[in-house]
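dumping this here so i dont lose it again. seq + smiles for adenosine-5'-triphosphate
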Amino acid sequence: MGKVISVANQKGGVGKTTTAINLAACIALKGYKTLVIDSDPQGNASSGLGINRDRLKYCIYDLIINEVPIKEVVCSTRVRNLDIIPATIQLAGAEVELASRDNRENYLKESIQPIKDEYDWIFIDCPPSLGILTLNALNASRSVIIPLQCEYYALEGLSQLINTISLVKKRMNRDLSIEGIVFTMFDARTNLSIQVVDQVKTHFKRQVYRTIIPRNVRLSEAPSHGKPIVVYDPRSKGAEVYQDLAVEVLKRA
Amino acid sequence: MGKVISVANQKGGVGKTTTAINLAACIALKGYKTLVIDSDPQGNASSGLGINRDRLKYCIYDLIINEVPIKEVVCSTRVRNLDIIPATIQLAGAEVELASRDNRENYLKESIQPIKDEYDWIFIDCPPSLGILTLNALNASRSVIIPLQCEYYALEGLSQLINTISLVKKRMNRDLSIEGIVFTMFDARTNLSIQVVDQVKTHFKRQVYRTIIPRNVRLSEAPSHGKPIVVYDPRSKGAEVYQDLAVEVLKRA
Ligand SMILES: Nc1ncnc2c1ncn2[C@@H]1O[C@H](COP(=O)(O)OP(=O)(O)OP(=O)(O)O)[C@@H](O)[C@H]1O
Ligand SMILES: Nc1ncnc2c1ncn2[C@@H]1O[C@H](COP(=O)(O)OP(=O)(O)OP(=O)(O)O)[C@@H](O)[C@H]1O
Ligand SMILES: [Mg+2]
Ligand SMILES: [Mg+2]
């Protein structure tokens, strides 16, 4: 029974895509059948895993809006046990198209039903907003991983995100819970990073992962090669910490 | 006649808010009457300029959706010559509410008409998406400043943004042009930063500002004090480069 987890945070640039693809790749390489769903019209998770978006026949837009069978939309990646449902800019049209439909938050949940049990883990990379695409992801998930950049604006947005998760839990998806909060782009040399970590740990206690992702330039280089960090540079600090995070996520689940 | 400029990029976390509030503050301190419009439901530009969102009577949502007179929505800031139209999470509801209305992309343009001529410069901070709120900002503007983070995913998204600007120009706002592209979070120690700058300069030539914004921790500390960098730490590198950018923007316009 595939565990479906959204990787979400409406604050932009906090490491959602980097966490979704690198965590998924580490878990896949441990032998678990894993799927990444790219639900961001920017399509960063797709290009970060080497998908050439210009040559795609179908993407997530076709799955949700045109009801193309999911088996025709799923692509394999260059990582063993890791598949992806890719996204292209076409997905930007879905927000407006779904806005006027009934049951608009359940389209993704219903369309992944047929293949859910073929994967052990499914990670949904969300766009930087709390709009209809993110609501679809939260509705399709059992839990949420929240990447939290160690900066002031990111901390400021956390309560809005927690409120939205509780609303979705109350109104649409009773199973939804917080899988965990992971600190990203931590820079031990700055007081700001240390203050953010202290404040969040005190407030969220056990919901915070012990693994902290530091700022590491190899993580930002890997996407230009279409590879997750464990393939691009397995000996880098970035690869090491995402392996640690994968171990922690597997243990806790 | 106020020059209205959107600060936009659908990629998240590239420095839109940081550029909007610091550029606006530098221009205001040179004696120009300046307004920041926060059109992002995260409300980062508002808190970055010291606005306490819990005590606000009105925000941009009231202006666009409830047609509250603009003079009642505008707030002053602690910076001379700088006002703001603040945003709160209420604005997140505007996307869905506007989706079904005719003329949905023109609400902001029409609502700022009454005060446009009271300001020399108006900067609109956009959310990380190309949805209805950003289209409203582009429609209300004469030009766009594009903050470009020196990273792969940010570069990948640039062509989508340029396409969207040309579409808005063709269909809705013939005056719209690119004011300039400004590199942000530049780290001279990484090849990635240098490669991104080289590629973009070759392609966009004169549309790129000479001023490059380096990574500077004081810029990320300033928002927690509700102050722009020139007030928080006037002698920092961050303050210096945004002053330089202000000079360049004033010269070009
Ligand atoms: N730990 C890290 N160290 C250095 N760079 C990082 C790290 N994590 C992410 N990055 C880089 O920072 C940028 C933002 O990360 P990413 O795109 O994963 O965030 P996001 O939350 O998915 O953004 P968006 O809100 O646009 O979807 C990217 O260019 C990425 O390569
Ligand atoms: N030059 C810089 N050096 C260091 N930190 C910076 C710099 N510019 C911005 N930051 C920090 O990086 C983070 C992202 O910047 P900012 O919030 O301005 O981007 P944004 O594009 O407005 O994000 P969003 O897409 O969420 O609206 C913030 O925490 C900000 O304080
Ligand atoms: Mg992303
Ligand atoms: Mg912003």
